[in-house]
Amino acid sequence: MKLSFRPLTRSDFPLLQKWLSEPHVEEWWHQPLDHFGVEDKYGPRVDGIEPTYLFVILFNEKPAGWIQWYKWTDYPDHAAQLGAELTAAGIDLAIGEKELLGNGLGTAVIIEFLNRIIFADPGITAIVTDPEEKNFRSLRAFEKAGFVATKTVQLKGETVLRRVVTISNNKGPADLARPYFVI
């Protein structure tokens, strides 16, 4: 099993649009965007205008989904709703290829991404994120990666409840366990 990440580019937008329209992704992302919608939402991130960093998840060198991260200092209103410290970062991901679900890949992606990318920044003290409370697959992946649920919130303008999960960077990236998973 080979897991890697590369920055998402505009040439990935058709694939991102396809993934966002997949029922298992749309159920939680609520964004089945057309070409222009993908450009409007993700173009500023790819261009570095918006401080959210996008990556394609590569599993055995093939695109499997995407992952993004951001510093909560850049999104203080959302951070305040979650109770996230401004020295923490946030993370969101989706496995876009349905046949890769249910085998632990999400957990492996989370752990590897934290080890290789986010916790490589010594200024990041923790990761705090907020999957929907009913998104059991996502919550389980974060739990298996070592995250702890701290509370449930409803964000301004939303009708769903979100579970706030967090993991600290007090041990360093080498201390995060590598999961076993089956493909």
Descriptive labels:
single chain; 183 residues; alpha+beta; Aminopeptidase; 3-stranded antiparallel sheet; 6 helices; 7 strands; 31% helix; 26% strand; globular; disordered C terminus
Write the layout of secondary structure elements.
Layout: E1 3-7, H1 13-21, H2 23-29, H3 35-46, E2 52-59, E3 62-71, H4 76-82, E4 89-95, H5 105-116, E5 126-129, H6 136-144, E6 148-153, E7 162-168
Antiparallel strand pairs: 1-2, 2-3, 3-4, 5-7, 6-7
3D architecture notes:
- The protein has 183 residues and is α+β, with helices and mostly antiparallel strands.
- It has one domain (3-175): Gcn5-related N-acetyltransferase (GNAT) (Aminopeptidase).
- Helix content is 31%, strand content 26%.
- It contains six helices and seven strands; from the N terminus they run βαααββαβαβαββ.
- It has a four-stranded antiparallel beta sheet. It has a three-stranded antiparallel beta sheet with strand order 5-7-6, covered by helices on one side.
- Helix 1 packs across helix 3 and helix 5 (105-116) packs across helix 6 (136-144).
- The model is unreliable at 171-183 (pLDDT under 50).
